[in-house]
Structures are given as C-alpha cells and as structure tokens.
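Give me the fold.
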Amino acid sequence: MYHALLKLLNNEVSGDAAKNLVAQISQWHRIQASPMYRAAAEWVDATLRGYGLASTIERFPAREGVYAWAEPMFQEWWCDEATLHLIEPDGTQRRLADYRAVPLSLMPRSAPADGEFEVVVVEGGDRPEHYAGLDVRGKLVLTRMMPMSVHPVAIEQFGAAGLIFDGMRSVPEVCPPGDLQDDIQYASWWWWGGETRAFGFVLSPRAGAELRRLVARRTARGEPVRTRALVRSHFADGTLETVSAHIPGTSDEEVVVTAHLCHPAPFANDNASGAAAAMEAARALHALIARGVLPQPKRTIRFLWMPEMTGTYAYLAAHEAELPRMVAGLNLDMVGEDQEQTGSSWLLIRTSDAMPSFVAPLLEALREGYFGQAHTFNGQGEFPLFRHAVVPFSNGSDHYIFGDPSVGVAAPMLIQWPDRFYHTTADTLDRVDPRSLWRAAALAATYAYFVASAGPREVAWLAREMNYRFEVRLARKLQSATSAALGGSAPEGPDWAARVAFRRERQQAALESLRRLDPGFDPHPWQTQATTLADAAWARARDVLDDWRVPEQETLPEEAAKLIPARRYRGPISLQPYLRHLPADERADAKAMVRKHGEFMDLPADVALYWADGLRNLGDILRLTELETDVCDPAGLLAYFQLLARLGLVELRTA
C-alpha cells in the first residue's frame, strides 16, 4: 500500500544534503523574535524558493500586550556584545564569559548592563528562605537554578541586579550528574511585560565550581568577589517570523508538517535537524511532483518553520478559520541524532486520547518500512539497526498545540530522545547523523503525501491496520498487567475493566476520524470489529484482572465534581506568564500548589485541559485524565482549574 511510495522517497531524499542544511541553520543564534532568528528564517525561505517551492514569510507582532489566543507575546531582542570579567585583587581582569565567542554565555533577553557587581552564592534561589542572612541587592546571584525560577525572589523581591547560572541538567541514562563539566546549559529570560528585567551570564559547571570556591575563600577573609559586566543589548517592538511553504493540492484541505526553527547557536539537533529534515522532505516531494513521478496530491501539503510554541500559537490564531481544513499534522523535533553519541532512541509520540485519530497508527506502519535493514545470520529474520519505540502522548513541542482538541489537528511527533547533549553547547554538528536525517525526512514526506492523497482505497487499508495495532497494543497491556498481578505486585491506577472500555471507545472514535480522508467511509463494521477484539482480549485476562484493583480510589468532593470548566481560549495554557498578575500572597500560594502537585502539573494538567470541552464536569475529567495518564490527583485537578478560573482562562460553571 505504501511501500512503493516509501521506496521512491528513500531514493530521492539525501541525508548528507540535509546535514548540510543543518550546518547552515545552526550557525545562527536563533533566539525567538530577534534579527538572528529572522536571518535564519529568510535563508530558509530563499532556499525553499530556490528549490522551486512556493514559500513566503508570515510576520506576527512581537511586543508586549499582544496575545495569540491565551499565549502572550514579547518584545524583540538582540545583543551587540556582552562580557563578564572577574576583577582580581590587583585590579587586573580575567574574562569569564564573552557573548561574541559563545552566544549562550549570555542569557537571552538579558537587559543592558555596565558596571561592577559583587558575586553572592545562593544555594537554591527560588524561595525567600534561601536568602536568609544574605544581602543580594545590586549584586549578582550565583545559582544552579533556572533563571525564571529564581527571578521572582532574587530580582523582584530582594533586588539583585542579575544572575550567574552554572547549572547542568542530568538524565541518568545518558547524562549522569557530573557529565559535561566544560559545556554550558541553555538558560534564558522571558519577559511578557511588567517584570523587572535583569541580565545574566552562564558558566560551565567547572568554571562555576571554581568561582564558588573563590567566593568561599575570599568571603572567609572578609573580601568580596567582584566582577565587571558589560551587556549592550536592545529591546524593541518587532516581529515573529514563520516560513510557510506549500505544495498545492486539488482541494482546499491541508496536511501540515511543522519543525521549529528557533534555538540558540550552536544547537544542531535541537532543532536545526528537524528544520532541515522538513526542508529536505519538501524539496523531495516538490521535485518528484514537478518531474511527473508523483501526481499532484488531493490535499495541499504545507510546511511550517516557526519559533517553537509562540510561533505556532501566532500562526494558528491568525489562520483560525482554516483549522477545519487541516486534516492532519506531523511535528519534527530533534530527529537527526547520532544515537551512539547522544544515547537517543527514535521515538514516535502518539496523539492524546482526547484527540483520537488515524495519524499515529499510520505513521507507525510507515516507519516499520525501515525495520528490515539487517538480517539474522541465517537470513531468517529482519530487524532495524537503530533504537526505536512508540510511546504515549507527551507535551513539550508544537504538536501539543495542534493536537489540542480545541484546535483539532491531530499531529504525532518524531523525536530522538533522550539526548546527552540536549540544550547545551555540546549540541553541535558532529552529533548529527545523516542516516537519521534521511530516515526522518523520507518518512515525513511519505506520511504527508500519503495523507494528502488518501481516498477510499487507502482508508480501507488503514482501518484494517488500525484495528490490528489496537489489538496488539491492548493485548500487550493486558498481558503485562496479568504478569504483574500473578507476580504479586500491588494494583495501581484505574480498574482494568474501565481501561478496556476506555480503549475500546477511543478506538471507535479513531476509526470515525477516517471520514476526514473519505467522507463516504462507513466506520461501523470496523468499530464492531474493534469491540469484538477488545472483548476477546479482556476475556483472556478477566479471571486475573477483574479483582486486581485499588481498594479505594481518591475522588473529588461531590459539589466540586459537578463543576463544568468552559475554556475561554483555544490551545494549551502557559501558566507562568499569568502567575505574575496575581498579588504576591496568591502568587506564592499558586507556586506552592504547583510544587505540591508536581506530578499532576506536568503532563496530566495539559491532558485534563484537553478533556475540558464545556460539557464534561470535573468528575468526568478526573476519570478520563487518569485513564490516559495513570495519574489520579483530585486535589491537584481541582486546584488547577480553580487557578485557571482565578486567572480568567476558564469559567467554572455549575451543572
């Protein structure tokens, strides 16, 4: 069904050419809403037009007070030069950071500065008690915590002039604590309006440790450590650019492929690799169609390169009337990793259960076209030569905006994760593998063209494929639970009968989505088959799992469970820009709530908002969120929606 198309695109796509594109893009310090990002966007646009594609740049306001749905925009920023020098006791100066040499050594959106500043070490930094006995007013706080966590306390409350950040994230599997001692971690400011702007520099963990030891020694002698900081930076009302290229179809429907173009230099895999893969996919499809090898598709294929998150909000809000015509999406994020160096696996991120669709099963089937790269010694078995997995929905990139049911464009994501060098100056071109780029670009092009051209024949195949994968996934889940139960493990999460019923209902809704590709498609026979498959799988596990359940489930108070949240805006909600509008005591309470319910406030909070359709009450949303994420936190869910209501982002209605 798809094999000839995949083979054709495998032959057309070049991973080496895509890596050359990564090399070009990664040269720019691609800070959102900046002349550096704009230069990269203009180069992408010119290159695409050079390929013969119809491409344009759409510009959106970048200034305070402008919103795209509920997402606030911000001013444009750029910097001419920035240095930080240590002042020695004899008056000589030793350079600690230089923006021109290493752009990430200055926190993006740093305010201008010119003067001498004492350095004060703060352990932690996001709570007032961390500053007990310390005077940081007018000084630089040396911290390992991210700047936006420290800002409300260090800058706003205690009057620090700025920060020096020397932290380094760790992912035990690929980047254990103590790794990357000479690299710099990405840390940034974000200003939405009304904040006290500050400046900040970033040091490697090794350089930071040396500075900490120096502060300790001199403090013991009663001698301050002083630095000389110069930051020649600028803020202005400006624009946010999205490059939009398209391959025209014969109808007004669209398939959308996205890849964010932003991020600091020298970031190559994040996300110059995704941007390059999308460029190569667009070039390959255009070339094959122009040569007559592939016919013009039924649906337009649109490719978007934008600032992550904010650019997606801006584009979708400006094209809100077109959302019903977008039948599917695909997000490419960090797809170029050299797995041996980065420790990554090639992941397919499925869509949320709140947005059931054909898209993830289709992409999963297409991706298996790469599994026969190698054979066993006797030639009887095939397998891939790369690490891979299909995993449930997660947030964190542009697909989770498209795939919000209030937006309605189901979009899986291709990503390589984890990455040892993620968000550090070690994310360089030499960590990029042309083979990874080749696979990602060819797969994206195959997916986009298949969806753009799909009709009754393709839909009939896809319905079978979806039910096959549904059966396998459900059977695997049930057998895994059966093994745990028979092994004496304690039950967790919802009852398995409820889980099976939920999966069955979601599969039926996913099959219904095939009508987007073929309005004449009758899903009922396939939905009946899905029910039969689910019932058969449950029948095999029921004798073990029916009584293997949590004795008492947490729940909401009766009146709270009846509350119905009505969303006031499309798209997910970013809390941080809104918390600053609260009075200080309420803001502190809100942040304490977020910390207390940390597990819920990560992915489950976004999922809960997905399920809020203006009809479901909080009791229903709690149940559905747990069925999707296995996290049940009634108090966290109630506090979250009460906070959203307090911020004017939802209305809580009584039934």
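Residues 607 and 625 are 6 Å apart (CA to CA).
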